[in-house]
Design goal:
- It holds the Pfam family TauD.
- Its cofactor is Fe(2+).
- One of its GO terms (molecular function) is dioxygenase activity.
- Keywords: Antibiotic biosynthesis, Dioxygenase, Iron, Oxidoreductase.
- The chain is built from 7 helices and 17 strands.
- It is an alpha+beta fold.
- It has a single domain, classed as Clavaminate synthase-like (Double-stranded beta-helix).
- Strands 1, 2, 3, 4, 6, 14 and 17 form a 7-stranded mixed β-sheet that branches. A 4-stranded antiparallel β-sheet has the order 5-15-8-13. It has a two-stranded antiparallel ribbon with strand order 7-16.
- Helix 1 links the parallel strand 1 and strand 2.
- Helix 4 crosses helix 5.
Length: 297
């Protein structure tokens, strides 16, 4: 464990220090009629994920004439060139097509919040999602998150991206006691076959590793039947403040045909609230894919 600042580097970015060319990759298909990206596109994405800011956005995939499931398959095929694509478990919470059919119109009671948060986690409504990392129903979170924009929202719905390394170093400099707590174990939900205990930050072979979802941490702690140790709640509050600081968050409006790829262990993601047309088949829709890091890398 270490609570020291790790210093400057391509992973420790903020919106002011990150150039668009560091993460934006124009789509370049192979031979005419081939739906596959060129080796250069794939190489640039891999470099951005492993040696750059931990994210890449491939802009301009051709989706005309494709239905939503076909777009999702295109997303999976691209991700398969980067890592081992993970099968999503059955059930609405892990759909590969993320849409928002309705938005809540009233304040929810405390008893309804847990079910509502399940919907929020799978982007089942139109409210803001604070920066977080994805989890899976396996012991470890996925390495790669891919989101292909099939239809953007009519208004809003920008992706929010945050460098875990930049957040870590800011805490190391300004509030090391909070960072110390974030290196301790937290419960990330409980239940049959789903006990997850992990620090928010830890040092691993590939460098700094982050795992964070405020809702699941608080739910896990509650289900464990124990209050947070002294200072732990304050540390989460401090972390939330840094994660939502406009100077920390890169805002990226996704266009149709944009494929956002994120190292889920190094970059946190979220989304602004949005509004959409009422008609079916017109609402915001993203295809999602998870993948593991290639063996030996």
């Amino acid at each position: 464990m270490t609570g020291r600042a790790e210093g400057p580097g391509p992973r420790a970015w903020t919106p002011d220090t990150l150039d668009e060319q560091d993460w934006l990759v124009p789509w370049s298909p192979g031979p005419p009629g081939a739906p596959h990206a060129t080796a250069d596109v794939v190489a640039r994405v891999i470099h951005g994920l492993r040696h750059g800011p931990g994210l890449a956005l491939v802009r301009g995939l051709e989706l005309d004439g494709l239905g939503d499931p076909e777009c999702a398959e295109l997303c999976r095929r691209f991700a398969a060139r980067l890592g081992a694509v993970l099968p999503l478990p059955e059930g609405p919470s892990a759909d590969d097509l993320l849409t928002a059919e309705t938005a809540p119109a009233v304040e929810l009671s405390a008893t309804d919040r847990a079910a509502d948060q399940e919907a929020t986690e799978r982007e089942g409504d139109a409210r803001t999602l604070d920066p977080h990392t994805d989890r899976s129903h396996r012991p470890e979170p996925p390495w790669l998150l891919g989101l292909l924009c099939i239809r953007p929202a009519r208004a809003g719905g920008e992706s929010l991206l945050v460098s875990a390394r930049a957040v870590h170093d800011r805490l190391a400099e300004r509030d090391p006691s909070a960072l110390h707590h974030l290196y301790q174990d937290f419960h990330f939900g409980r239940g049959p076959d789903f006990d997850r205990v992990s620090p928010v930050f830890q040092q691993r072979r590939h460098g700094l590793h982050v795992q964070y979802n405020r809702y699941w941490i608080e739910r896990g702690q509650q289900e464990a039947g124990r209050p947070f140790p002294p200072g732990r709640q304050a540390a989460l509050d401090t972390l939330h403040g840094v994660l939502t600081d406009p100077g920390t968050v890169l805002r990226v409006p996704l266009r149709r045909g944009d494929l956002l790829l994120v190292d889920n262990t190094a970059v946190l993601h979220g989304r602004t609230g949005f509004s959409d047309p009422a008609g079916p088949g017109e609402r915001r829709c993203l295809a999602r894919v998870w993948a593991d890091r290639p063996a030996g890398r």
